[in-house]
Amino acid sequence: MQTMKNYLKIAFILTSVLFTSMASGQQVNVSGIITEAANGEELPGVSVVVKGTTLGTVSDINGSYSIMASTDDLLVFSFIGYEIMEAPVPSSGRLDITLESTIFNMEEVVVIGYGTMKKSDLTGAVSSVTSGDLTAAPVSGIGEALQGRASGLQVINAGKPGDNVTMKIRGLGTINDSDPLVVID
């Protein structure tokens, strides 16, 4: 009889723990619209990530998003030029977000093709060549177009038709002889 009572106690405790964990961590399909605080316009391309995971999505052209998350999770909303915002997952599943723009002092920030950095944190050289510079002269390839337009860039052409050009920054003795990152936008 005593063992039966022990089994019932254990079953009751396990059932209580199971229901408590299910209630606190329910999966919810969270959806909503992300807007800009200044004018109320929808923001497309906002990154929505469940904090601490790689689970995420991006808002569509109308600023709408949808993501599965647990009610215990936090959602992180980020977009270049806007404050990062964190919000808990609501049990209702509806979460509309308004993002505040970040005002950059252009003396302190360098905007590069793949992000932004403080000027004091930038350790390398960043050069920019505009499309007007590239189309100013008739050239047969991107190597010829960049030659002489970015300081420290050396363009080496093998001279064979169809052969790729090699680009080096600060000459052939560059540390670990790495190629530059070229972003075409």
Q: What order do the SSEs take from the amino end to the carboxyl end, as H and E? A: HEEEEEEEEEHHEE
Low-confidence stretches: none
Globally, the shape reads elongated
- Helix percentage range: 10-25%
Q: Kindly estimate the percentage of residues that lie in beta strands according to DSSP.
A: 25-35%
Overall number of strands = 11
Biggest β-sheet strands, sense, barrel:
4 strands, antiparallel
Instruction: List the strand order in the largest sheet.
Output: 3-2-5-6
How would you characterize this protein structure?
The chain has 185 residues and is α+β, with helices and mostly antiparallel strands. The protein has 3 helices and 11 strands; from the N terminus they run αβββββββββααββ. The strands form 4 sheets. It has a 4-stranded antiparallel β-sheet, with no helix packed on it. A 3-stranded mixed β-sheet has the order 4-1-7, with no helix packed on it. A two-stranded antiparallel ribbon has the order 8-9. A hairpin with a 7-residue loop joins β10 and β11. The chain is elongated and about 85 Å long. The termini are far apart. The relative contact order is 0.10. The model has no long low-confidence stretch (mean pLDDT 76).
